[in-house]
Design a protein that fits this description.
Elements lengths: L1 E4 L5 H13 L3 E4 L2 H11 L3 E5 L8 H9 L8 E6 L11 H6 L3 E4 L4 H34 L3 E6 L4 E4 L1 H7 L3 H4 L16 H9 L4 E9 L5 E12 L5 E10 L11 E3 L4 H6 L21 H14 L7 H14 L3 H14 L16 H10 L37 H6 L10 H7 L4 H12 L2 H5 L3 H13 L10 H15 L2 H6 L2 H13 L9 H6 L3 H5 L5 H15 L12 H17 L5 H21 L6 H9 L1 H16 L7 H25 L15 H24 L2 H19 L10
Length: 748
């Protein structure tokens, strides 16, 4: 919220009013100091802009001081508008700062100058004030915490202790602040205990354990302590936070200290380091599990740790299990322990392949599509895209209009609303430019230009730019694949259940996401790029590398040139919402989260809908609407929609399925060839062009990724024709495999 304090309307105040409207800020105007103060006390504005150019109307500095005397102004940014003087030396801003102003603005009635000023304030000082405002809540939580909390600087100078710490240790806060830690922790059983703690926390790891500490009166108390280093400016440790709890009399069993370090996603996926589970607070006691008292103590400790007030669903599940353990006999408690171990892994949704008789095709597909590769020590690097020149609107020829499409292309798109539409016929008719033509037709059918408030020529330019940045040299990940996914997306959006669920903005986002979801794809997997040390892998920290690149580049290409910026006329908040949905859908095509997306869809949507039908509530529109229309479930549906569109090839008519299988196999063959040339790890060894069985690879992919996902999607969207094609294609590949044929088609 912005408060403008100007005695009279002029170009400067008009400029700020226009800027507030453009930025989407709520704006109030006051003409007198009294009106300004009353308005501020009522609205509590984030920004106040006071006119200091004409002292004859009111004293701007006096007004600022008056506002600053109020409690509400503590986190308010106050800007002073001063006259522009070109004929005299710059004056000092110290009097303005003394009066309470945050910033000085030299008069400039340019609307864009006013807008830029507001945006800088929003993303600078206003956001900083929001954080400071939130600190009051955090300090309230610390003050009320029953655990003793002590915060020290990097040099172990005490910065803060809470009341619980004062009560536990017998000190007053004034006796501790700015004092060095003179009382070192004493552990009677380990002389080098302090060194053990310091060696852990000084390298950025958490430490947890028990030690004896002395109170002010000299008494020794045993504490269960967790010490956390806090990384600050420059990536260095700037503070240490110590959280302590008194041990009960029956809880004095010695625990070994644990160094705790967060487990990286890559480590989890490739190494499965079980010892790193110690990062959670319920670390196992090193004493024997045979003692009932010890196990009971450990379970009580675990339950306390997880009784947090801010809980994720998985935390609630763990709490329920912990509570059940309290009164369970030992065999049940141990079984629940094993359940907790499983729940605390990061890969809850990924099936674990067995080690015996494992299908090498499935294993290689999982390794190639669902991991970020193996780390290499060699210096070879695979350079991609970071320095590549991308096609922009100005470098392309003028695209054709929807009304001027050649007859052959029009004929090829006649049945584009049907699932059996042949994308390869359109590819041939358009000389490998199907995305522009199919995009124009589908976007027109869904009224995309009307929704975005953009012209057809802008849409044509955008489609051409996006298509130009697909690599036609890729056998699979080219603009034909993009057009195919766009077609599947449009087909799914036309299904009745999907139409009931999604809003117009969701449909627009889905179609745009489908068009851009693989833009600038290099024809190599994420694992390859990570192993090769590509610039993109480094840029995106080996995480969803390609998907992040596709989403980012799509918006860069769109917004850098007004000729193809289909978003340029959108209202700001609506654009942000649309952008968020597009990014989320593109990132959903990344395969490492495949089973998470599918399982969430089944559990949150399929099963509740099935339960309603079983209970005879099929006609209960409100109950179904509640399931379909919740924001969380709509996100799951949009992710599932684009995932199914992206890998729908096995559900296409047989000839199309065979063609896509040949194209993806060739791309994987080419990757294996390059990995061997460069001495990189071969992430999918079965995709050797001399030995690979394409039928086996297709059956493995269908069995592992496709069947369950399309069963779930069919149950939701009702797609009997797709499931019939899928069953026929499975029979076809099994027929070839049964004859030990490794090729796409049987010999004549």
């Amino acid at each position: 919220q912005v408060l403008l304090v100007f005695a009279e309307e002029d170009e400067q105040s008009s400029g700020f009013r226009w800027a507030c409207d453009k930025a989407g800020f709520r704006c109030n105007i006051a003409r007198t100091p009294q009106a300004a103060l009353e308005c501020f006390l009522d609205k509590h504005h984030d920004i106040i802009i006071i006119d200091h150019r004409h002292s004859r109307y009111f004293d701007a500095e006096a007004l600022c001081r008056s506002i600053r005397t109020t409690k509400a102004s503590e986190n308010t940014v106050i800007v002073c508008v001063v006259q522009r003087h070109t004929d005299r030396e710059e004056s000092s801003i110290l009097p303005l700062i003394s009066a309470g102003f945050t910033r000085r603005y030299v008069e400039n009635s340019s609307r864009m100058a006013c807008y830029n000023e507001l945006i800088q304030l929003e993303f600078g000082q206003v956001q900083a004030q929001f954080k400071l405002r939130a600190c009051n809540s955090l300090f309230t939580a610390l003050e009320k915490s029953q655990e003793a909390i002590e915060i020290t600087s990097e040099d172990h100078v005490i910065q803060y202790v809470n009341p619980a710490f004062e009560t536990m240790m017998g000190y007053q806060i004034g006796e501790l602040i700015e004092k060095e830690l003179t009382e070192v922790p004493i552990n009677e059983k380990k002389a080098d205990f302090l060194d053990t703690i310091n060696s852990c926390i000084k390298i950025g790891k958490e430490w947890q354990g028990m030690y004896y500490a002395k109170k002010k009166n000299g008494d020794s108390i045993q504490q269960n302590v967790k010490i956390l280093p806090v990384i600050g400016q420059g990536g260095k440790i700037r503070h240490y936070v110590s959280i302590s709890r008194l041990c009960n009399d029956n809880n004095k069993v010695e625990k070994t200290c644990e160094c705790i370090q967060a487990e990286s996603q890559t480590d989890t996926q490739t190494c499965r380091h079980k010892d790193m589970r110690k990062g959670s607070l319920d670390v196992r006691s090193t004493t024997s599990r045979g003692s009932d008292g010890i196990s009971q103590r450990r379970r009580s400790s675990m339950a306390r740790v997880h009784s947090m007030t801010i809980e994720a669903p998985i935390t609630k599940v763990i709490n329920i299990i912990n509570a059940a353990q309290e009164s369970s006999p030992m065999p049940v408690a141990e079984a629940l322990d094993r359940a907790l171990e499983i729940l605390r892994t990061t890969e809850l949704y990924s099936p674990q392949l067995g080690t015996k008789d494992e299908d090498p095709h499935t294993s290689d597909l999982v390794g190639g599509l669902m991991t970020d590769g193996l780390r290499r020590l060699s210096g070879n690097e695979y350079i991609l895209s970071a320095k590549q020149t991308h096609q922009v609107a100005g470098s392309l020829s003028s695209p054709i209009s929807l009304n001027d499409i050649p007859p052959r292309i029009t004929q090829a798109m006649e049945n584009e609303e049907q699932w059996d539409f042949d994308i390869f016929e359109l590819e041939a008719a358009t000389h490998k430019r199907p995305l522009v033509y199919l995009g124009l037709k589908i976007f027109a059918r869904f009224g995309i230009c009307e929704f975005l408030n953009c012209s057809e020529s802008t849409l044509r330019s955008w489609l051409q730019v996006i298509e130009a940045n697909y690599h036609s040299s890729n056998s699979y990940h080219n603009s034909t694949h993009s057009a195919d996914v766009l077609h599947a997306t449009a087909y799914f959006l036309s299904k009745e259940r999907v139409k009931q669920t999604l809003d117009p903005i969701d449909e627009v986002a889905a179609l745009i996401a489908a068009a851009v979801h693989d833009v600038d794809h290099p024809g190599r997997t994420n694992s390859f790029l990570c192993n090769a040390g590509s610039e993109l892998a480094i840029l995106y920290n080996d995480t969803a590398v390609l998907e992040s690149h596709h989403a980012a580049l799509a918006f860069q290409l769109t917004t850098r040139d007004g000729k193809c910026n289909i978003f340029k006329n959108m209202e700001r908040n609506e654009y942000r919402t649309l952008r968020q949905v597009i990014i989320d859908m593109v990132l959903a095509t990344e395969m490492t989260k495949h089973f998470e997306h599918v399982n969430k869809f089944v559990n949150s949507i399929n099963k509740p809908l099935a339960a309603l039908e079983e209970n005879g509530n099929n006609g209960d529109g409100e109950s179904i609407k509640t399931v379909l229309r919740s924001p969380e479930n709509r996100i799951l549906i949009k992710r599932m929609l684009i995932k199914c569109a992206d890998i729908s090839n096995p559900c296409r008519p047989r000839e199309q399925c065979i063609e896509w299988a040949g194209r993806i196999s060739e791309e994987y063959f080419a990757q294996t060839d390059e990995e061997r040339r460069q001495g990189l790890p071969v992430v999918m060894p079965v995709f050797d062009r001399n030995t690979c069985s394409i039928p086996k690879s297709q059956l493995s992919f269908i069995d592992y990724f496709i069947i369950d996902m399309f069963d779930a999607w069919d149950a939701f969207a009702d797609l009997p024709n797709l499931m019939e094609h899928l069953n026929n294609n499975i029979k076809y590949w099994k027929g070839l495999d049964g004859k030990n044929l490794r090729v796409l088609r049987p010999p004549p």
